[in-house]
Specification:
Rossmann fold, 15 strands, 2 domains, about 375 residues, seven-stranded mixed β-sheet
Length: about 375
């Protein structure tokens, strides 16, 4: 065994970077107390997490409007000022992206923005981000608050936004539920709620629990996405504690974000999130008129292994494992093999599959019809 040189200095350990500290705290579900009020952490958050949140906000705004448009639903604010409430605004990334996402749909409508966060420094950053997008004539209100404390909310609200706030308040989920219920009841008819959370199992299952409780408590809440078929049923992912539901959407981030991600071992090639888009309406929205029957949404990666392709699909009430033998790959089912998580297909009808233990086996002549992407 080689002897250690007594004169050789041991390599010094590199001090953790602010991004490393933030990343570790979020992954452990123990965010650093007051991190938005610490200059180095705030700047780091603004450089890395802000553009990621912005991309998510824009993507979900587009999806919400597409889902409404497909079903002939008209936003409540087409001819008036749009009132937007953002809970847990942070540096404003999510609402910034959201505003970009709706800009093409409502180019002339004035906006009135209400930002809520516990950090004055974060709200200053969020206000600046919003001001870069909106004309000066559009009011922006910043309100320092401790979640889930009492909030002074506008009435009515047209869009209710919230990103990552539930994940940072897991121990306060019952109080957060009450806050969301109160805010939802201030939504105008046709008003929309968008909740976005991290893609990990704990955060996702917490959001799914909140989803089910909101549906139990709010008669006028109907889910636009991601749940298919507008059945407003209890989430089937909660039946198995190992299951959760999240998106993984391909996305191109800037070189700066890629560099920062690499420094903490992240791979930033997609928008990864759990989310919920709900609308306030006395009636359940109708399925798209072009759909002759129910749809299935792919909620897992599509697997290609051992002579077959398979994935886990959801119909809004239960999860189904659907598979096709590789030797049965052909023109009528070719769409199946290129599906990505979050895409939908028409549900096969009787005579197109064989039900086996744990699986639905599609027959060789069963067509796989991919629906247009609403995201």
């Amino acid at each position: 065994m080689a002897k250690r040189d007594p004169h050789r200095k041991s390599p010094q350990k590199t001090a953790p970077t602010p991004l490393h500290n933030l990343s570790q705290s979020f992954q452990s579900h123990q965010p650093i107390s007051g991190y938005m009020d610490q200059k180095d952490l705030l700047q780091t958050y603004r450089s890395y997490y802000h553009p990621i949140s912005s991309a998510k906000g824009e993507s979900l705004a587009t999806e919400a409007l597409n889902q409404m448009g497909k079903r002939g639903l008209t936003p409540s604010h087409v001819s008036q000022s749009i009132k937007i409430v953002d809970f847990g605004s942070g540096t404003g990334g999510f609402v910034e992206g959201f505003l970009r996402g709706i800009s093409a749909y409502f180019p002339e409508s004035p906006r009135e923005i209400f930002l809520y966060d516990h950090s004055h420094h974060a709200l200053t950053s969020a206000s600046e981000a919003v001001r870069k997008i909106l004309p000066e004539t559009n009011p922006v209100h910043s309100r320092v608050t401790r979640f889930p404390g009492h909030l002074t909310l506008p009435d009515p609200i047209d869009w209710l936004l919230q990103a990552n706030l539930l994940a940072e308040n897991l121990e306060k989920s019952p109080e957060m539920l009450l806050l969301l219920e109160e805010a939802f009841l201030r939504l105008s008819p046709g008003g929309v709620m968008i909740l976005a959370e991290p893609a990990d199992r704990v955060s996702s299952r917490n959001l799914l629990n909140i989803r089910d409780l909101l549906l139990d408590h709010l008669q006028d809440l109907h889910i636009l996405a991601p749940c298919p078929n507008f059945r407003d049923a209890a989430c089937p992912a909660l039946l198995n504690e190992k299951d959760w539901c999240h998106e993984d959407r391909p996305f191109h981030f800037s070189p700066e974000v890629h560099s920062m991600a690499s420094s903490v071992g992240h791979i930033k090639d997609a928008l990864k999130m759990s989310y919920l888009i709900g609308i306030r309406s006395p009636n359940r929205p109708l399925s798209h008129s072009s759909q002759e029957h129910s749809t299935l949404r792919l909620v897992s990666e599509l697997k290609n292994e051992r002579g077959l392709g398979w994935g886990i699909f959801c119909d809004g009430e239960e999860r189904k494992k659907v598979r096709i033998l590789t030797r049965h790959r052909n023109e009528v089912n070719k769409s199946f093999w290129s599906l990505h998580r979050g895409e939908e297909i028409l549900q096969p009808i009787a005579g197109q599959f064989i039900a086996r233990t744990g699986f639905l086996d599609l027959l060789p002549d069963a067509p796989v019809i991919r629906l247009g992407d609403s995201r």
